């Protein structure tokens, strides 16, 4: 059965930053667009040159990457309060984004933005943010999130983070970055494999599997303090950690009783208890969004399929029936969509989604070696690992399959992705 994903060992900050130089930022390539793109004009923010990042450029890139918007360059509008609605309506814009950036005495910045509806000739939204030098890009992502939500009705996920594992030679590292691949920070590094990263609901911790003890052990790593806790170091294999929605528990797959089964532990590693009980292999547990159920992979029917059971254990019900090999379940935040990897068409591993209400299945990828799917916190996109040009890379696809992105690095392989939660 395919292995699932995680992370590992902390080193001194200087060593981490030095070794990161061998890697490049994520390169993002976009293809495909949404079925009904919304035309939006984005103006250069007045005086944005005083900031270390061009706010309007970040906003444009975010909106373009989503595939939901057709961007119209609005040039510079120095007075955000003086917008000619008829002019922008005649240029085909349904909305226009304007704003200003000013430097503060303390070295920070005041970033202000307004979103205008040109059709109704009214202001839709505004946001004023005081930000530090290091968080100008984050302010821009938050503005893009607001535009996305006001124009689509769905919360934006640009101001979130992703984590993934890079491998070059024998060196493995867990990297945390903004959702657009910028601001990469090496969180963990090891000469042993790092697999199965899983974000905590508050975005401050990651559970992972490290092989540094020459066997798989589950840890929880605090990304702020770098402190880490052993969650599972039982006899045999310890793998596939997944957080409960409230962050108090971690589901894991352990082989300490023989065949691998599903267990739940407190986030500090205490109180481990078994919840699955089959004669086969039960692994890759994932909590439902309400915390009531566990989705998992099991070969109890003869081949790997996805099942669901109560988070307290008990009877398991099979969920996937198409195809003979379905693994790596991930459930959307609204609980309506299941994503997974299925082996079809002569051995190709591809990304599928299943509408749990209708039972309708859809293949989202056209690659052949997919693994490790992860939903964006708004449920509208999926991040996954694949193989492109003979190298392991990442990809993003919208849940309707229309918008696709490919994410690569200059050196080495990139894999084991996980999309972080909405930030508080």
From TrEMBL:
Coiled coil (residue ranges): none
This protein's GO CC annotations: periplasmic space
Superkingdom assignment: Bacteria
Keywords assigned by UniProt, alphabetized: Cell cycle, Cell division, Periplasm, Signal
Positions of the TolB N-terminal domain: 26-123
Span of the signal peptide: 1-24
Locations listed in the record: Periplasm
A GO BP annotation: cell division
Major location category of this protein: periplasm
HAMAP family (alphabetical): TolB
Assembly, per entry: The Tol-Pal system is composed of five core proteins: the inner membrane proteins TolA, TolQ and TolR, the periplasmic protein TolB and the outer membrane protein Pal. They form a network linking the inner and outer membranes and the peptidoglycan layer.
NCBIfam families linked to this entry: propeller_TolB
Function: Part of the Tol-Pal system, which plays a role in outer membrane invagination during cell division and is important for maintaining outer membrane integrity.
Name under which the protein is recorded: Tol-Pal system protein TolB
Organism this protein belongs to: Pseudoduganella aquatica
